[in-house]
Amino acid sequence: MAAETAADQTWPAPGTKDKSVVWYEKELKGLSDTTRHVLETYARIPPDQVVEHVHAIREKAWDVFPYPCIGGWRFLDLSIGQAAQYEEILKRVKDIRKLVTDGAPSNNLYGTDLNAPFFDLGYDLFRDRSTLQAHLFASDIFKYDPNSTSGTHPLAPLTDTVSIIHASSFFHLFDRPDQVQLACLCVALLIKQPGSLVFGRQTGNYNPGVITGHPAHGGHTGPIQDPATNQLGKTSEAVGNRADGHGEVFPTPGPKKHEQVFHHNDETFKEMWREVGEKTGTRWKVEVEMTKHETWGSMDVPGMFCRLKYACWML
């Protein structure tokens, strides 16, 4: 009998709450000093109760929507504090509680997500429902029209008023045209002056292009699929393909549930922002840092996937 390969396996559809999927880690194997500090000092959770507390919140979040970052505990990263621009951000004001812990006035902060139940879970995680003054609201940014005169979208009052946007684990959920649209909408929210900033982190790829799969997002590793022919094999747009013609295949569990997404390297990300600048009449200094992904929890990360941190400064 031939040995089963990853391409032969049957994987659950995105959105499954089946905890046997590879991107669900049952136990929390470590908590960063930064996150523990926020939970113990800001949320005032006794040190011996922190792990039990985050376990309970994670299970509730998994029931809202089983994103891989929830299954793999990455929602606890508080990556905003790791940004090279963090000190500058603190002076001028994915994480709001990290900012508030370090002294940013919470009434100057706005946060939005497609899924409103995550806000309640955030309050429960940090125990600040009665004290946090940040403005949190659910919205679909694709429905935001900065040129609309109706002003009915939740983001409409923020048009041309925001100085810093933190967007992590966000752009990589979409294909390139939608990423350009999203970036242009972010620009619409920003004050049009030098120093306005969009920054964050996401999954990237040393070989950039269209991705039709990655197990960390809910699919399987297998042959790359050519979207034009629906046939398996190498394509000029495929990313992460190895010498044997295999890559990563998945439907993404993002807001628009794209069957294909685009993952960048430093050059393609900068090129996208040059296009955004042309479309919006703005100019940008774009900084990108890439580091190799080794594992996602207990799962090896295949191909050329990497962590991509970015900062886009308006000139």
Report the β-strand fraction as a percent range: 15-25%
Strand count, sense and barrel status of the largest sheet are: 4 strands, mixed
The unreliable regions are: 1-12, 214-258
- Please tell me the overall pLDDT: 76
Basic shape:
globular
- Beta strands, count: 14
User: What is the N-to-C order of secondary-structure elements (H for helix, E for strand)?
Assistant: HHHHHEHEEHEEEEEEEHEEEE
- How far is it from the N-terminal to the C-terminal residue, by CA? 62 Å
Find the structural class using helix and strand composition: alpha+beta
What percent of the residues sit in helical stretches (DSSP H or I)? 25-40%
How would you characterize the overall build of this protein?
With 315 residues, the protein is an alpha+beta fold. The protein contains eight helices and 14 strands. It has a four-stranded mixed beta sheet with strand order 3-4-14-11, covered by helices on one side. It has a two-stranded parallel sheet with strand order 1-2. Helix 7 links the parallel strand 3 (164-166) and strand 4. Helix 7 (176-189) packs across helix 8 (266-280). The radius of gyration is 20 Å and the shape is globular. The model is unreliable at 1-12 and 214-258 (pLDDT under 50).
